[in-house]
Design a protein that fits this description.
Elements: E1 3-7, E2 17-22, H1 31-40, H2 42-49, E3 59-63, E4 71-76, H3 87-104, E5 109-112, H4 124-139, E6 145-150, H5 160-173, H6 183-189, H7 193-217, H8 229-234, H9 240-250, H10 255-261, H11 266-273, H12 282-291, H13 296-305, H14 315-325, H15 331-340
Parallel strand pairs: 1-6, 2-4, 2-5, 5-6
Antiparallel strand pairs: 3-4
Helix pairs in contact: 3-4, 5-14, 10-12, 12-13
This protein binds ligand AR6.
Length: 348
């Protein structure tokens, strides 16, 4: 899981190191700093006293004491003063310094809070963007499991316009199974009859399209009855793994370009690579389709090989389709939106 988001309390996470968003004296405070000191116990403060403080944009390491995490990397983010006082590069330095310490200590996993985005007033969405950019840049050249811990929903303020677009797209496409049985129900609670019919029509055409693809996926055998099952199985179609490897070649990508862009970890990729009949999870299959920048038909084809489809009854599927159809293949942006709508994230 190279980069993932979770909603929750960082003090509960079992990783090699969690990051503390501290102040320059490193003697504790409110917010995540207070929570970490409370959960770690007084020995953490004893060790912090010996560190002699920490400058803005720098970081220092301590043990984790009673925390489930082995270590704490204390960093000091900038106070937001409107954005013209070097705040972005200081905040970026925090992430880079913490990651540097993690590499130096051979940590395999690290969890960050959204540094500076509480008491220090950094706008959450901007803080999140710097967090994601710094971590994804780092992951281009390193292997590490990085988790960004989001404490409150408002951090994912995706941007009002984009959110409205996506909500409208979901609204137009979402097919709610409970609405198939009655006209009055459709009109009564889901808005208009037109919407209801439109979504129903779309769904019907999608399902028949899928059914067609399913059939065409199997070779049509001239004399089906006379062939043995063994013979039929020999004619089996290209598998998910085979399609994935073929597409990587066709797109002139290296394996690592592909799995990094897909937010998939190297070990999982090797497993898939070495097993022609590997059956990935849907989130993994979608991640590869995004990394390969497949269009919607190729994405459906790839998913089908893993036993999945894209339907209008799932918000996850509609959001993925929205991004593919808009030509936006940025996995982190897609995950931000999936996270906002409480959906499974794509990648490992
Ligand atoms: N787990 C994860 N995230 C949390 C937690 C938690 N338990 N608690 C808060 N957050 P802040 P800053 C989020 O104020 O802005 C302290 O007093 C919170 O929602 O903790 O860098 C220090 O001593 C927000 O998104 O840190 C400094 O004086 C993010 O963590 C000053 O505050 C950061 O909020 C540092 O301010």
């Amino acid at each position: 899981m190279p980069l993932m988001f979770i909603r929750g309390d960082i003090t509960k996470i079992k990783v090699d190191a969690i990051v503390n968003s501290a102040n320059t004296n490193l003697l504790g405070g409110s917010g995540v700093d207070g929570a970490i000191h409370r959960a770690a116990g007084p020995k953490l403060l004893d060790e912090c006293r010996k560190l002699g403080g920490c400058a803005v944009g720098k970081a220092k390491l301590t043990k984790g004491y009673k925390l489930p995490a082995g270590h704490v990397i204390h960093t000091v983010g900038p106070v937001w003063k409107g954005g013209r006082n070097n705040e972005p590069s200081l905040l970026r330095n925090c992430y880079e310094e913490c990651l540097r310490i993690a590499v130096e200590n051979k940590f395999g996993s690290i969890a960050f809070p959204l540094i500076s985005s509480g008491a220090y007033g950094y706008p959450k969405y901007k803080a999140l963007k710097i967090a994601v950019d710094s971590c994804s840049e780092f992951l281009k050249t390193h292997d590490m499991d990085i988790t960004i811990v989001i404490f409150d929903r408002n951090s994912f303020d995706i941007g009002r316009k984009k959110l409205k677009d996506i909500e409208a797209f979901i609204d137009d496409n979402y097919y709610d199974e409970t609405r198939t049985w009655g006209y009055s129900d459709a009109v009564g609670s889901s808005g208009s009859l037109k919407n209801f019919l439109r979504s129903f029509r779309k769904e019907s055409s999608t399902s028949s399209g899928t059914a067609h693809t399913v059939h065409s996926n199997f070779p049509v055998l001239g004399n089906a009855c006379s062939e043995t099952l063994e013979e039929k199985l020999k004619m089996i179609d290209e598998s998910f793994t085979e399609m994935l490897l073929r597409k990587i070649d066709e797109k002139d990508m290296t394996d690592s370009d592909c799995y990094k862009k897909a937010n998939i970890d190297r070990k999982l990729f090797s497993k898939i690579r070495s097993n022609k009949d590997y059956h990935p999870k849907k989130a993994t299959a979608v991640a590869f389709a995004i990394a390969l920048e497949l269009d919607i038909d190729e994405t459906k084809e790839m998913l089908l090989k893993a036993g999945f489809g894209l339907s209008n009854s799932s918000k996850f599927d509609i959001i993925v389709r929205y991004f593919i159809e808009s030509g936006n293949y940025n996995i982190y942006e897609i995950n931000e939106v999936l996270f906002h709508f409480d959906q499974v994230l794509i990648g490992s």
